[in-house]
Amino acid sequence: MLEKKMEGINTNKVIEEFEASTKDAGGVQRETLKKILEENGSAEYLQNLGLNGKTDPESFKSCVPLVTHEDLEAYIHRIAEGDSSSILTGKPILDMSLSSGTTQGKRKFVPFNDELMENTLQIFRTSFAFRNREFPLEEGKSLQFVYSSKPGKTKGGLGAGTATTNLFRNSKYKSGMKAIQFQGCSPDEVIFGPDFHQSLYCHLLCGLLFREEIQSVFSTFAHSIVLAFRRFEQVWEELCNDIRDGELSSRVTALPVRMAMQKLLRPNPELADLIYKKCSGLSNWYGLIPELFPNAKYIYGIMTGSMEPYLKKLRHYAGELPLMSADYGSSEGWIAANVNPKLPPEMATFAVLPNIGYFEFIPLQDNAECMYKEPKPVDLTEVKIGEDYEIVVTNFAGLYRYRLGDVVRVMGFHNSTPELKFVCRRNLILSINIDKNTEKDLQLSVEEAGKLLAEEKLEVVDFSSLVDVSTDPGRYVIFLEISGEASEEVLQECCNCLDRSFVDAGYVSSRKVKAIGPLELRVVWRGTFLKILEHYLGLGTVVSQFKTPRCVGPMNIKVQQILCNNVAKTYFSTAF
């Protein structure tokens, strides 16, 4: 039934519905909150707060406090243990999403239900409608670097998987993707394969086998796409051999994956020769993606925030092919859609869908910092252009006035709903004294150092940081993985450049009076950040959910150990 209903969605109708809801975003927000509270008014959590059936925003805000995940952990734990009473929601929660844990170093359970699934499909339909208006797709397939972890169970028997796993395994997902011409070219056995490396190899092989049909290239995060084509550089000849002989490489050992792939393979020496010739003719792999997939219209995935450092490499692979940033959300649910697909990822904005949750915004007065004195939250339509806010979410899955921890900037309005730009995670900060440097500040500093390496035809593969307070005074430590060997002089200048590029007034003044010690650059061996990825895969994270930890906190001991145990060279800044 669902497949028939959704097949060939009317994109004009989707856009009309979006336009209508955003013209009266304030009214839609009140109705959305009313619906959430009517559906979940019997929940123990809301009953204990004395809401007593009230559904208006004023009563809601006066009764229900702002919370973090830590405040709700006891309630979520009871649900995960199998308590089926109305704890956070009116209807029982049957599934939990697991966050990646790459931000905090600790994975957390987040309730997931059918309403969140419907919100996901609505976000996908909305952004597709705007995207397809600008870049219409033809009949074909999408090369999707997506991976699903093995679904687990909580102690109480609830389904437990990553947010992406909950999507991919939901019966509505496939029909929803078919409706927006977003069907992957890889068999399910590859997506749900037990080994990421084998699945990645098979994704690449499937893409080549269907190269003429590929209309788009996708992964949840830009990092996964870059990772895939870095791997392609290493295995392309082996892939050509598989296509030429019609036999799958022995590197793929998982039997269900082998069987599914073998059904697709036939000896095809002409295709193998064509791919070999195209790869051999490239200069340093520039324009690899359009060369392999001549009918691809764009590359799509989350490319903002911690993904921005990968854009330079992704553009190298993409050549002239457009990059498009996917929608804005989190493990807790979706928030906003990209309705301006022509904007480059660095300028991408996301329009809040006013009917998928109730949203509040805590004003952050000082744009240069991400730790602020706290004013009262304002409503969706009360935000001001150019101002920064922390998002507070109330959703259909039991999160009420939940602080997401994301800082966003209001760039404009689409009708009466704000268009947001992601700025940083509020709690990811390098700070020792009066200094406060965000993940974005770190990224800008690394970009400046990267320019020095680029002059030597080298690049930053990945990076991270921590605050070292074991010495007095404490100092910033930056870890860089570099694509090749750089001279001592260049690396020392990179170290100085990193130090100088933190322009936060508190940092500069503290460095000048030696209240913060010289920045330390630690160059790590090639493959170090893959070891960090492997560590998180071992914990159950999937590649398509992985984000490199940029500021490694003191509790994230294992990642600290991986970084510190793989240091090849160390330099101290002489910039101040």
TrEMBL record:
Q: Which InterPro entries match?
A: GH3 (IPR004993), GH3_C (IPR055378), GH3_M (IPR055377)
In terms of superkingdom, the source organism counts as: Eukaryota
- Source organism per UniProt: Populus alba x Populus x berolinensis
Task: Write down the Pfam families for this protein, in alphabetical order.
Answer: GH3, GH3_C, GH3_M
Q: Which terms in the GO cellular component ontology are assigned?
A: cytoplasm
Q: Which family does it belong to?
A: Belongs to the IAA-amido conjugating enzyme family.
Q: Which UniProt keywords apply?
A: Ligase
GH3 C-terminal domain span: 440-552
The signal peptide annotation in the UniProt record is: none
Output one GO MF annotation: acid-amino acid ligase activity
Domain GH3 middle, first and last residues per copy: 351-425
Q: What is this protein called?
A: Jasmonoyl--L-amino acid synthetase JAR4-like
